[in-house]
C-alpha cells in the first residue's frame, strides 16, 4: 500500500511539474493617477492589477521635491525601506515602501506626501511571489545616484543573504531600449530592473544603457529573501530574445502608412531564429502578406476584430526558421489600406527547432483588468508565448509577462501608445499563466495569444490546478 501511495505521489509530481523553487514576477504597474505638483493620490483600480495572495508589494515613489511619504491600504502594514531612500538635489527624491501578506484583490491604496511633489510625482507598483510554500521577508536595500552619468549608468550593488529577488527602481532617466538593463537583470515595462533568483553573496551593481542625451540617474534597490533560504534556481531555458522592434516616432506615432504595403526596419536577423510580427490598427484590416528573412505564415487563428470598436483589429505573422542571409527590413502588405503599428520579435533557441504550437483569441467585456487569451500548450516541449491586446486608451501593465518595454521611449508594455500592447514570455513548459491587463478606461477589449514550441522536456500530464504558476526561467 505504501508503494502504491508513493507511486501516486510521484505521478502527481510529474503531472504538476513539481514547481521548482523559484521567485515569480507578477506585475509592474505604472500608477498614472498621481499628478505632478500634488501631495496625494489613491484608489488605483484600472491603473494597476488587483493583487494576488501571499505576494510582496512594493511602491517606488519618486518626486522632484525633497518630501517624505506614507503609504496605506490593502489590509497591510507598510514599511519604508530607509536604506533605499536617496535625494539628488535638482534631480529626484526616491522612496521605497513594501508590504507582505496583504489582502488579495487590492487596488485601493493611498500615498500621501508631506508637501507638494514638485514637477514630478512618479509612482510604480511591483508585485512578486516567493517560492512555493515559502514565506518572504526583507533582506537588504540600497541607493545610489549620479548627476553626471550618461550613456551607461550604474545601479546599486548589494550583499544578499539567500537566493533573493532584487528590484531596482530607476528614475530621472530611462533605459535606451527594451534591453537596457544588463543581464542577469530584465528590463521591466516601466524601465526598472528585476533579478529573479539572485544568488546569495555579492550582487554586482548592474549597468543600464540609458536614453541618448540623458544625464543623471537615481537608483533605489530592494531585495527580499524567503524561508526557502539559499537554493539552486531553475536552469536557464534554451530560448532567448534576440531583438524587439516597434516603429520609432520618425516612422509615425500613429503607425506605418500601409497603403496597403509598407516596410519595417529591423536589426540584422540571425539564422534559424523565430520571427514574430504583431499588427494592430483601428481600421479593421488584418495582415495580408509578409516577406523578408525567409518564408512567413499569416495564420487566421490570431486574427480578431471588435472590442470597443468594430474597427479594432489584431493579427499576426511568423517565420519559424530565419534565413542564413540576414534581413534588415520586413516587407508588409496589409489586406487593405490602414495606418498600422507593429511589434517585431526575434527569438533564438539552443535546443531543437521552432514549430507552431497553438493560438487563441478572445473578446473581453468591459473590465478594469481584462484577461489575455487562454492557451493550452503541448506537453513535453518548451514554449515561447506572445500575448497582445487592443484597448482604446491604452494599458499600463500586464501580469507575468516581463518582456518587453515598448515604444522605445517608454510606454510600458504598449507597442502602440494608447492603443495596443504586446509582450512575451519564454521558456515555459507544460502550462502558461493567463495574463491580465490594467484598463482604467473600463471598456471592451480584444486579445490574442500565440505559442511556439521547440526542443523536448519532461513528459507531463494535464495542466496544474489553479493557483500554481508555470515555471518560468
β-sheet strand percentage: 35-45%
* Helix content, binned percent: under 10%
Structural class: mainly beta
Q: What quaternary form is this?
A: single chain
Question: Main sheet, how many strands, which sense, barrel?
Answer: 6 strands, antiparallel
- What gyration radius follows from the Cα positions, in whole Å? 22 Å
Structural shape: globular
Number of strands: 32
Helix and strand arrangement:
Elements: H1 2-15, E1 24-30, E2 40-42, E3 56-63, E4 69-73, E5 79-80, E6 86-88, E7 92-100, E8 109-113, E9 121-129, E10 136-146, E11 152-154, E12 158-160, E13 164-171, E14 186-187, E15 193-198, E16 201-203, E17 207-209, E18 217-226, E19 239-245, E20 256-258, E21 261-265, E22 274-281, E23 287-291, E24 304-305, E25 313-319, E26 329-334, E27 338-349, E28 355-364, E29 382-390, E30 414-416, E31 420-428, E32 445-454
Antiparallel strand pairs: 1-9, 2-8, 3-7, 3-9, 4-8, 5-7, 6-7, 10-18, 11-17, 12-16, 13-15, 13-18, 14-15, 19-27, 20-27, 21-26, 22-25, 22-27, 23-26, 24-25, 28-32, 29-31, 29-32, 30-31
Folded structure, characterized:
With 473 residues, the chain is mainly β. Helices cover 3% and strands 41% of the residues. It is globular, with a radius of gyration of 22 Å. 52% of the residues are buried.
Could you name the key traits of this structure?
473 residues; mainly beta; 6-stranded antiparallel beta sheet; 2 domains; single chain
Compact description:
This protein has 473 residues and is mostly beta strands. Helices cover 3% and strands 41% of the residues.
